[in-house]
């Protein structure tokens, strides 16, 4: 395979779909991991129309073995993974007095723990210059108490990205969390396409300008 490859984990119609399309127009082939076949099929057709070869895996990424197997199969098929983009998080509308420990751990397994599974599975296929990106959120610093687990997820995944970046940087692989400091909308500075552009810019920076967190404020 000579074309670069991005794998999008938690692929859907929002930011993750925009990220996939943004990389496709730059000549990337795309692997999609998601939980909704209809969404994956629709996104896959849009990517193919942009010239990308597309692979899909219908998978619950909180199923650790299933997530690892899906990434491994994609890596074996393409022979390389140049960018791994991680998007998922759980929105559960419960404040700290109603949120249970089990619910918190379930949400963290999706929004944080699944990143470990896919990074570890992708690593054998990532060479020098490969990148890992995560859709971050201002909820990491200013959580809404009505959805308390979301802030925990976003703070946790950002912290994990810092550790991943430090671990892999000696091999020339870098990781970044793009902190979206605004609310996603259909118009204005926080559309999924604008956020995807910020993620593209963060991933393709010169290594001399690298930092493992990049804020996007519109």
Automatic annotation (TrEMBL):
CDD domains, per the entry: SDR_c
EC number: 1.-.-.-
One of the Pfam families matching this protein, by short name: adh_short
Record bears the keyword Oxidoreductase: yes
GO terms for MF: oxidoreductase activity
Keywords for the protein's UniProt record, in alphabetical order: Oxidoreductase
Protein name per Swiss-Prot or TrEMBL: SDR family oxidoreductase
Organism: Nocardioides astragali
């Amino acid at each position: 395979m000579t074309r670069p490859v991005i794998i999008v984990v938690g692929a859907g119609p929002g930011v993750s779909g925009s990220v996939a399309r943004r990389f496709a127009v730059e000549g990337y082939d795309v692997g999609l991991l998601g939980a909704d076949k209809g969404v994956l099929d629709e996104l896959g057709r849009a990517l193919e129309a942009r010239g990308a070869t597309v692979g899909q895996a219908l998978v619950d990424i909180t199923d650790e073995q299933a997530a690892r197997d899906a990434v491994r199969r994609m890596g074996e098929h393409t022979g390389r993974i140049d960018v791994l983009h991680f998007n998922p998080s759980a929105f559960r509308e419960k404040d700290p007095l109603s949120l249970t420990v089990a619910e918190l751990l379930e949400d963290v397994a999706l929004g944080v723990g699944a990143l470990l599974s896919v990074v570890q599975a992708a690593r054998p296929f990532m060479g020098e210059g490969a990148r890992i990106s995560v859709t971050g959120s201002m909820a990491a610093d200013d959580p809404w108490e009505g959805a308390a687990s979301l802030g925990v997820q976003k703070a946790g995944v950002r912290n994990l990205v810092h550790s991943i970046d430090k671990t892999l940087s000696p091999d020339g692989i870098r990781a970044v969390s793009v902190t979206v400091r605004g609310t996603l909308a259909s118009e204005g500075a926080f559309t999924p396409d604008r956020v995807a552009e910020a993620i593209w810019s963060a991933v393709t920076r010169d290594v001399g300008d690298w930092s493992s967190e990049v804020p996007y404020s519109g």
